[in-house]
């Protein structure tokens, strides 16, 4: 298992990732990002669904990352064939995303457009690995739906960093600082600093108000789905 040591000397497990892609350009880009990302460990690569199924049957990863070069229905069918009891967690990049009926068969899923930034992709992988479902709309799309304003994954209005965004999402789910520290591979003092910074930026007084904020704005959806518009 891959471990990471935080700045207080503690060891935490990194989320293990299987990369499924068959185009050398995107494969190299994703491999580079996943290999160097905090809290993640690339444990296997596959060029097609058969190779992915073989990798899963040999060792279950925490999350599968794949691109729209693969039909999600075929991906999940093959994976569930060899690991019928595995709570599938998967992030798809590009295309129309993972259809809702397929997502319901999984423990957690993430769908991101091709114009998502590197840190957005890595945040989504971390969060899906931790059991949170992510959906994201393409940048540039006009949002006309009624209801609360949707916030972008990078929180441009409030200039939250990627790590502050990760912490806010986990905080809103009720995780303690110690649990957030373990999930993200950060020291507790670093998590506390992120919490204080995001509280200040959002103009809220405490964790409860921050949690209420995420639900009122629609950032976190009832039932466990975390929704982004970018």
Description:
With 230 residues, the chain is of the alpha/beta class. It has two domains: 14-139, Rossmann fold; 149-219, Arc Repressor Mutant, subunit A. The chain is built from nine helices and nine strands. It has helices at 24-36, 49-58, 72-82, 100-103, 118-129, 162-172, 177-184, 188-202, 207-216, and strands at 3-5, 11-13, 15-20, 40-46, 63-67, 89-93, 108-112, 133-137, 225-229. The strands form two sheets. It has a seven-stranded parallel sheet. Strands 1-2 form a two-stranded antiparallel sheet. Helix 5 (118-129) runs parallel beside helix 6 and helix 6 (162-172) packs across helix 9. The longest helix has 15 residues, at 188-202. It is elongated, with a radius of gyration of 17 Å. The chain starts with a strand and ends with a strand. The model is unreliable at 4-11, 137-158 and 225-230 (pLDDT under 50).
Residue-averaged pLDDT? 78
Which range best describes the helical content: under 10%, 10-25%, 25-40%, 40-55%, 55-70% or over 70%? 40-55%
User: How many angstroms does the end-to-end distance come to?
Assistant: 34 Å
Low-confidence stretches: 4-11, 137-158, 225-230
Q: Indicate the structural class.
A: alpha/beta
User: Which architecture name of the largest domain does CATH use?
Assistant: 3-Layer(aba) Sandwich
Give the total of beta strands. 9
Please, how many helices? 9
Q: What gyration radius follows from the Cα positions, in whole Å?
A: 17 Å
Per CATH, the class of the largest domain reads Alpha Beta
Instruction: Summarize the biggest pleated sheet.
Output: 7 strands, parallel
Tell me, briefly, the overall form: elongated
DSSP strand content: 15-25%
CATH topology type of the largest domain: Rossmann fold
């Amino acid at each position: 298992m891959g471990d990471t040591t935080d700045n207080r000397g503690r060891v935490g497990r990194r989320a293990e990732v299987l990369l499924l892609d068959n185009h050398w350009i995107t494969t190299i880009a994703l491999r580079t990002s996943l290999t160097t990302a905090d809290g993640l460990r690339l444990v296997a690569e596959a060029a097609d669904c058969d190779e992915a199924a073989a990798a899963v049957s040999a060792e279950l990863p925490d999350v599968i990352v794949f691109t729209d070069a693969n039909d999600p229905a075929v991906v999940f069918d093959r994976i569930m064939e060899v690991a019928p009891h595995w709570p599938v967690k998967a992030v798809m990049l590009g295309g129309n995303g993972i259809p809702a009926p397929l997502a319901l068969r999984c423990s957690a899923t993430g769908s991101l457009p091709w114009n998502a930034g590197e840190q957005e992709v890595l945040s989504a992988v971390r969060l899906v690995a931790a059991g949170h479902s992510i959906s994201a709309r393409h940048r540039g799309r006009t949002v006309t739906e009624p209801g609360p304003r949707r916030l972008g994954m990078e929180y441009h209005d409030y200039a939250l960093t990627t790590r502050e965004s990760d912490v806010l999402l986990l905080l809103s789910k009720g995780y303690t600082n110690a649990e957030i520290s373990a999930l993200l591979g950060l020291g507790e003092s670093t998590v506390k600093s992120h919490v204080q910074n995001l509280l200040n930026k959002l103009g809220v007084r405490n964790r409860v108000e921050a949690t209420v904020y995420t639900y009122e704005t629609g950032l976190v959806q009832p039932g466990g789905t975390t929704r982004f518009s970018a």
